[in-house]
Amino acid sequence: MTEVKKVKLPLSEAAVKGLKAGDSVLLSGVLYAARDVAHQRMVVALERGEPLPFDVRGQTVYYMGPSPAPPGRVIGSAGPTTSSRMDAATPRLLAAGLRGMVGKGARSEEVKDAMKRYGAVYFGAVGGTGALLSKRIIKSEVIAYEDLGPEAVLRLEVRDFPATVVNDSRGGDLYEAGKKKYRRD
Amino acid sequence: MRTIEAGAVTEAVSRLFRQANYGLGDDVLAALERARRDEQSPPGREVIGAILENAAVAAAEGIPLCQDCGTAVVFLEVGQDVHVTGGDLYAAVDEGVRRAYDEGYLRKSIVARPFSARPNTGDNTPAVIHTDIVPGDRLRIRVLPKGGGTENMTRLGMLLPTAGRQGVVDFVVKAVDEAWSQPCPPLIVGVGIGGTAEKAMELAKRALLRGVDEPGPDAETADLEAEILKKVNNLGIGPMGYGGRVTALAVHVESFPAHIGSLPVAVNLQCHSARYRSEVL
């Protein structure tokens, strides 16, 4: 097993600087769940100078829309969705102060450039392990866009939520490095 | 003529979607165990370990394997000597989907009017249904809850006939390479070759229903599958794209005759959460 770093959310500037691509982490604290339409609406709100559903400064967003919580559970299955669908909205949110993202799959060059510029980190969670990940979520509440059903914005509290640093704030990229290391021509 | 009640179809569909969403089949679990053994990359092995642990938790605690409980894809093989009574067959399928997703706490991921308002249909219907009429008096139902992330990586190529086998291999490997970290590898790669555009695409989807370890229907197809699998695993993408030697668990090819001027090739990817179930009524 690789060494696992415990990381507190919201992320501090120093914490972001200390993380590098490939690091295994356990996240504890607050995550905001938002996906496609929520991102679209947040960008519109920023353009109009309207308030966002939550103050994004320093916060971490989780690209996730859970299955319904069965009785007695905090949340249903709760794994990451494909992050690239949020790429178009992301530089705008990073400019507004967003510091972390949790999802799966590669990001665009524009997102990676904005991460370096504003000092942000992108974590990968293991897609398709929503049952396992749901056990690390200790609180969940809808805070905005309830009309979107499974796509509503949630405020989550997580404890020891397992993730891997995919893109760090200095341009490190686990997907690129991993592919290079194991590719055979 | 054998009579089957529409209600029995509803019950079977409901049961199958719940089973599929709460547990991986033995063939998928065995393939993942093997992948964990074969994978050289330490983060790759950890990812596969998490996938296997997730399957155990989902089954033991009744939590869906993945929050994306999929589009409800249903393949029906209706014996020509079957008479369905007591309702519309497709309505019976949709009712089964409705019950499974509602009572089973599965995510409702389907929106109507996808080009405009996109209101959620609220019950994960309608199912996407493929029907074959076959000899006999049985009704076979196969379900495949299909996640949106992998479906988005679908590719269709109308290749030149002269591109041949090599053209097919290159096209499929490129599709997987471009999908890269996004479709939740390790994958099952469904490939449909021949027919028309929509025929090739349906074959690619149908290929995903085959057990992970079942090779293609003949030696030439099995050989093509083996070559593509080797090349896909040489891409280095690995489990969840963290780098590794297991990018796919299997490649399944289905083919059909094609026009003299055509070589359609469809690629439909299945994530590691390969959730399919079947039942014969």
Relevant terms:
heterodimer, A: 185 residues, alpha/beta, fumarase, five-stranded mixed β-barrel, 26% helix, globular, B: 281 residues, 2 domains, four-stranded mixed sheet, 25% strand
Explain the layout of strands and helices:
The complex is a heterodimer of chains A (185) and B (281).
Chain A: E1 4-8, H1 13-18, E2 24-33, H2 36-48, E3 60-62, H3 90-95, E4 100-103, H4 109-118, E5 121-124, H5 130-134, E6 137-144, E7 153-167, H6 174-182
Parallel strand pairs in A: 1-2, 2-3, 3-4, 4-5
Antiparallel strand pairs in A: 2-7, 5-7, 6-7
Chain B: E1 2-5, H1 6-22, H2 26-38, H3 42-61, E2 71-79, E3 82-85, H4 89-103, E4 128-134, E5 139-146, H5 148-151, E6 155-159, H6 164-179, E7 187-195, H7 197-207, H8 219-233, E8 248-258, E9 263-270, E10 277-280
Parallel strand pairs in B: 1-3, 2-4, 7-8
Antiparallel strand pairs in B: 2-5, 5-10, 6-9, 7-9
- And the CATH topology of chain A? fumarase
CATH class of chain A: Alpha Beta
Radius of gyration of chain A: 16 Å
Quaternary state reads heterodimer
Pattern of helices and strands of chain A: EHEHEHEHEHEEH
The count of domains of chain A is 1
Q: What is the approximate shape of chain B?
A: globular
Q: What is the CATH topology descriptor of the largest domain in chain B?
A: 60s Ribosomal Protein L30, Chain: A
- pLDDT < 50 stretches of chain A: none
Mean pLDDT of chain A: 96
Describe this structure in words.
The complex is a heterodimer of chains A (185) and B (281). In chain A, 26% of the residues lie in helices and 26% in strands. Chain A has 185 residues and is of the alpha/beta class. In chain A, strand 4, helix 4 (109-118) and strand 5 (121-124) form a beta-alpha-beta unit. Chain B has helices at residues 6-22, 26-38, 42-61, 89-103, 148-151, 164-179, 197-207, 219-233, and strands at residues 2-5, 71-79, 82-85, 128-134, 139-146, 155-159, 187-195, 248-258, 263-270, 277-280. In chain B, the strands form three sheets. Chain B has a four-stranded mixed β-sheet with strand order 4-2-5-10. Chain B has a four-stranded mixed β-sheet with strand order 6-9-7-8. A two-stranded parallel ribbon of chain B has the order 1-3. The longest helix of chain B is centred in the N-terminal third of the chain and has 20 residues, at 42-61. Chains A and B meet through helix 5 and helix 6 of A and helix 3 of B.
